[in-house]
Amino acid sequence: MENKDIQYRELKGKTVVITGGTSGVGRAAAEAFALEGCNVVIAARGQEGLDATVSLCRDLGVVALGVPTDVSNADDVKNLAQQALQFNGRIDIWVNNAGVMASGKFEDIPVETMDQVVKTNLLGFLHGAHTVLPIFKRQKEGILINNVSIGGWMPAPYSTAYSSTKFGIRGMVEGLQGEVSNEPNIHIVGLYPGIQRSTGNMHSAKYSGLDFKIPPFSVDPRELAAQMVSAAKNPKKSIITDGYARMMKVLYGLFPETIINTASAALRLAMKPHADTNTDGNVNTASDDPHRIYGELAIPVPSKRTKTVMMMATGLAIGFLYVKSNKKNKKK
Q1: Nearest residue to 232 via CA among 3, 11, 1, 4
Q2: What residue intervals traverse the membrane (predicted)?
């Protein structure tokens, strides 16, 4: 049963901290909380992106602060919290959102890049939680929102380090939910969205000749940002935020081997024979432009009806493959 003694139905004047807040989902979240009248504290590595997002929030009529932060550095995260407390005296909502990704054959990804993916994603979320929980306990209230990804429930082949961090973050979320179960007004929320139509893929590290665009069934980052606002108003422990994520979680639960093998085969086809497209992306350095919400799509965004048909077709195709595979196994 969810803790619902306090529901933040009115967010105006609340202070929210958002890590990775200068592009993609993070920028959409900054915009969404600003529209609710929150004081917004934005954390990211690059000053240019911070300035742009702070300006966006101020243009929406709220007070905003940008704090240069590398979430893989615990001292940086402590400084972020101190700056936020000096800003408005308290922290009401903390959004763990900063993340990086490296795709390619596991052995082709440099170990330094792989290590940094783990540091930014997993340790970054741990640092955020470790820093803000004592503040919430002193205040006797607070909400920690974690943008985990559906990758916390199903693995991502050829993004194995990234996938490992998402499983780890889900473990952190569920462990902390137990630890604060005696704190009725402190909430730990896990959000599990599908692939976002954000700049994340543009900024990611790519190896083994992988250079793919965002698929057409991706989700609008503003929809996920709206889910973050909803979670702040009415916190729940676990939220599968969109239809694609719900479908994939169910399908993976039913047909794990078929799903992982099909995805792996598709990615192998996407690999180019020459690795001259390899890039370290934003794993080790701050993101270059664009500091915006939306990324580049493989094809134009389909209508909601078309997306629904595509998802149903995907589910039916996987179900067909599963049945066919079972028949072959029985014949053997």
Answers
A1: 11
A2: 306-323
Closest CA relative to residue 95, chosen from 34, 40, 144, 150: 144
pLDDT in tens, 232-278: 999 999 999 999 999 999 999 999 999 999 999 988 888 876 556 67
Distance CA 242, CA 150 (A): 10
Structural domain containing residue 175: 15-301
Phi, psi of 137 (to 5 degrees): -70, -35
Q: How many domains does the chain have?
A: 1
Distance CA 225, CA 32 (A): 6
What value does the mean pLDDT take over residues 146-173? 97
User: Burial of 75 by CB count in 10 Å (0-12 exposed, 13-18 middle, 19+ buried)?
Assistant: exposed
DSSP class of residue 123 equals: I
Let me know: does 33 contact 15? Beta carbons within 8 Å: no
| β-strands 205-206, 102-103 pairing | parallel
CA geometry: angle 128, 144, 169, nearest 5 deg: 60
d(CA 53, CA 40): 10
Dump pLDDT digits (tens) for 96-123. 999 999 999 999 999 999 999 999 999 9
Q: Is residue 308 part of a domain?
A: no
Which amino acid, 206? K
Q: Is residue 182 part of a domain?
A: yes
* Residue labelled with tokens 């503040």: 135
pLDDT of residue 306: 57
Per-residue pLDDT at 146 exceeds 70: yes
Least Cα distance to 22 among 310, 296, 290, 303 occurs for: 290
3-state secondary structure of 193: coil
Closest CA to 141 of 95, 97, 94: 94
For residue 330, is it within any domain? no
Quickly state the pLDDT bin for 151 (edges 50, 70, 90): very high
What is the spatial distance between Cα 25 and Cα 223, in angstroms, rounded to a whole number?
9
Residue 278 sits in a domain whose CATH number is 3.40.50.720
The pair of three-digit structure tokens given for residue 168, joined into one six-digit string: 């780890």
What pLDDT is recorded for position 42?
99
